[in-house]
Amino acid sequence: MVGRWLSKVSAPTLIEAIRARTVPGYLDLDATRLDGYRARLPFLNPEADLARVQSVGGRFIIPGDMEWPSQLDDLGDSRPVGLWIRGTGSLRLLALRSVAIVGARACTAYGAHVAGEISAQLAERGWVVVSGAAYGIDAAAHRGALAVGGVTIGVLACGVDETYPSGNFELISRIAEQGLLLSELAPGEHPNRFRFVLRNRVIAALTRGTVVVEAALRSGALSTARRARDLNRHTMGVAGPVTSELSAGVHALIRSGGATLVTDAAEIGELIGAIGDDLAPHPSGPILPRDHLEPAIARVLEAVPATAEGAPVERLARAAGLPVEETLQKLYELGSLGFVERFGAHWRLAKGARSVPR
Question: Given pLDDT bands bounded at 50, 70 and 90, which one contains residue 27?
Answer without folding.
Answer: low
